[in-house]
Design brief:
This protein has 11 helices and no strands. Helix 1 runs antiparallel to helix 2, helix 3 packs across helix 5 and helix 3 crosses helix 11. The longest helix has 29 residues. The chain is globular.
Length: about 220
């Protein structure tokens, strides 16, 4: 729904002839506003933890203050998102829901497959309410199935459209698996913060990948 709201905002502002760079900033801000910036906060804390090294990473992640590496990670991610969205231009409304979808799938994969970093100190609300991968992923599979059916219904199934559909699915699956895997390798587990980082990095990576395939030049 967040991705679709961003798409709607893009189309509405384009109707009033806003420049792409302004719309890109507003769409990013909209996503942050809806989530309360929770995932970006997790990104910064996770970056600080990784940057502090294995001996101090837990302490750095728990510190309420944001370190220089956390700020740098936020700036880099925002710049990459802006660059991808501006390059996507006409295709941005198509890309927003896809990137948002795979970002949240990556969280589900992380919760299912990797240990909680702070399990000795407290329980994870994600794991306490976990219903198992098959039940947690079911709504997502229904949504993506409906999206695929609509895509096939609204477009001629030529070679380009078939390739684009396969690309969007496979690239999303790969990033949703690899990104939480690499974060787990760096931290030795996952936490609420790293779930947020996983989402943001996966979203950004998918926006970049879509901008490359949809607008090759």
């Amino acid at each position: 729904m967040i991705g679709f709201l961003q798409s709607l905002s893009w189309l509405l502002l384009r109707y009033f002839n806003w420049p792409n760079i302004s719309i890109a900033l507003i769409c990013i801000a909209l996503g942050i506003f809806i989530t309360g910036g929770l995932h970006f906060d997790g990104l910064m804390d996770t970056a600080d933890g990784i940057g502090a090294g294995p001996s101090k990473q837990i302490q750095a992640m728990k510190d309420s203050r944001v370190g220089s590496i956390g700020v740098q990670s936020l700036v880099i991610i925002l710049i990459l998102q802006m660059a991808a969205i501006i390059k996507l231009s006409f295709y941005a409304p198509f890309a927003f829901p896809i990137a948002a979808f795979w970002g949240r799938i990556s969280q589900i994969f992380a919760i299912e497959n990797y240990e909680y970093l702070f399990k000795k100190e407290s329980s994870s609300i994600h794991h306490e309410n976990w219903k198992g991968l098959s039940k947690e992923i079911r709504p997502s599979l229904i949504i993506i199935s409906i999206a695929i059916i609509l895509y096939l219904f609204l477009n001629n199934l030529n070679i380009f459209n078939a390739f684009l559909l396969i690309y969007c699915i496979t690239s999303g699956i790969i990033t949703s698996i690899l990104i939480p895997h690499f974060i787990n390798k760096l931290l030795g587990g996952h936490s609420g913060d790293s779930y947020g980082a996983t989402l943001v990095i996966t979203e950004t990576t998918n926006l970049l990948l879509l901008s490359i395939i949809l607008i090759p030049n």
